[in-house]
Amino acid sequence: MDVNCGSYLLKHAKVAVEQKKLSESDIDKALHNLFSVRMRLGLFNGHPEGQLFGNIGPDQVCSQEHQILALEAARNGIVLLKNSARLLPLSKSKTKSLAVIGPNANSGQMLLGNYAGPPCRFVTPLQALQSYIKQTVYHPACDTVQCSSASVDRAVDVAKGADHVVLMMGLDQTQEREELDRTDLLLPGKQQELIIAVAKAAKNPVVLVLFSGGPIDISFAKNDKNIGSILWAGYPGEGGAIALAEIMFGDHNPGGRLPVTWYPQEFVKVPMTDMGMRPEASSGYPGRTYRFYKGRSVFEFGHGISYSKYSYELTAVSQNTLYLNQSSTMHIINDFDSVRSTLISELGTEFCEQNKCRARIGVKNHGEMAGKHPVLLFARQEKHGNGRPRKQLIGFQSVVLGAGERAEIEFEVSPCEHLSRANEDGLMVMEEGRHFLVVEGDEYPISVVI
């Protein structure tokens, strides 16, 4: 109700009220939300141009502070998916020539993705790389991202003449946007053919940069020894090209993590109307999301590597046993796989608040570069199956560490939220047995006793 996308409310809201499918109180609540924001903006205090926000212009929007923020957001969001033999970062002094190939190399508009205002300035990926290596040769190889035809032979010749090759590939808004959904997870047209041919001809393993809003099945590139590094940039905004160049030449240590699972092409066989989360062995349904998906992944949720190696240690958890049998009125449920559980709703708010605990994690940067590193804390159960998630994210925090530096961070763990799951009736329950807090390869057990 608060946001009318298109003309849906105009056409259908009155009839919905008449049929009692929509209450007037819901409309009142939406109007309250909308008009309270307008009041806060001062839109009822006279002519808008005379109010506090009435004359916001390019000077405010494109302030130095905002442009720095855009660049920092791009730096933090770019994900290094592969870096065989530590190909990246490239050496500024030893790289004498660079070939930049691909339909996304010389486009600034592509960086913005969907739902973006005009940028303060355009710097294309090609321009950003040229600022590092003057002897940079560019060839688009495809007229558009669709790449229905590709100048493979010419691209191969360009690649052969350079010390290093960067391929700028992926998608743009001609392939995915509002009201234009993809029907497969592959690169468009002849992009894959082009990438393989150029990588095979290049003097050294190539760098593949992908622009997209969602996953792409690049299994071929993941397993190709001629493709040394893969970066996923998403649609990184106006600062994206500079951030990419900084990462490629070692002026920024990448630390981004994938926000979604990258499924393989065969996942498109799953009907988009099937919203079931859990896998179903009898039908071959693989499940959805990192919590339940049991099929092959191109890259998993949370994947992302860095130029530094980090180690983790769960140094302390404020409790390791949780007793649920403290109430005589508590209803105990016996599941068909002989695991007892209790409803979260019966534990009560007071119990849930009192049993929150703290988990302390030590993180060390073993690399030679400082880095901003996201730490992801998961929970999982010892017992699998029967609709239980494989794991679920408790939270994440980023820590900035210098070379060789160590720090400790803390997470708040709420057992009622983080150690529970939905049962077959859709009710949140906590099950007896061992649960684990997991950060990378380190685990800490918490026993739930009923």
Account of the protein in words:
- The chain is α/β, with parallel strands linked by helices and about 450 residues long.
- The protein folds into three domains: about 10-55, no CATH class; about 60-250, Glycoside hydrolase family 3 C-terminal domain (Rossmann fold, 3-Layer(aba) Sandwich), CATH 3.40.50; about 310-450, Immunoglobulins (Immunoglobulin-like, Sandwich).
- It is built from twelve helices and 18 strands.
- It has helices at about 10-20, 25-40, 60, 65-75, 125-130, 150-160, 190-200, 220, 240-250, 290, 345-355, 415-420, and strands spanning about 80-85, 100, 135-140, 165-170, 205-210, 225-230, 310-315, 320-325, 330-335, 340-345, 355-365, 370-380, 390-400, 405-415, 420, 430, 435-440, 440-450.
- The strands form four sheets. Strands 1-6-5-4-2-3 form a six-stranded mixed β-sheet. It has a five-stranded mixed β-sheet with strand order 8-18-17-12-13, with no helix packed on it.
- Strand 9 (about 330-335) and strand 10 form a beta hairpin.
- Helix 4 crosses helix 9.
- The mean pLDDT is about 95.
Top keywords for this entry?
450 residues, alpha/beta, Rossmann fold, Immunoglobulin-like, globular, Fn3-like, xylan 1,4-beta-xylosidase activity, glycosidase, alpha-L-arabinofuranosidase activity, hydrolase
Spell out the blueprint of helices and strands.
Elements: H1 8-18, H2 24-40, H3 58-61, H4 64-77, E1 79-83, E2 98-101, H5 125-130, E3 136-139, H6 152-160, E4 164-170, H7 191-201, E5 206-211, H8 219-222, E6 227-232, H9 240-248, H10 289-292, E7 310-317, E8 321-323, E9 332-334, E10 340-343, H11 344-354, E11 357-365, E12 371-381, E13 392-401, E14 406-413, H12 415-418, E15 420-422, E16 428-431, E17 433-439, E18 442-449
Parallel strand pairs: 2-3, 2-4, 4-5, 5-6, 8-18
Antiparallel strand pairs: 1-6, 7-11, 9-10, 10-16, 11-14, 12-13, 12-17, 15-16, 17-18
Helix pairs in contact: 4-9, 6-7
InterPro entries: BXL, Fn3-like, GH, Glyco_hydro_3_C, Glyco_hydro_3_C_sf, Ig-like_fold
Keywords: Glycosidase, Hydrolase
Organism: Populus davidiana
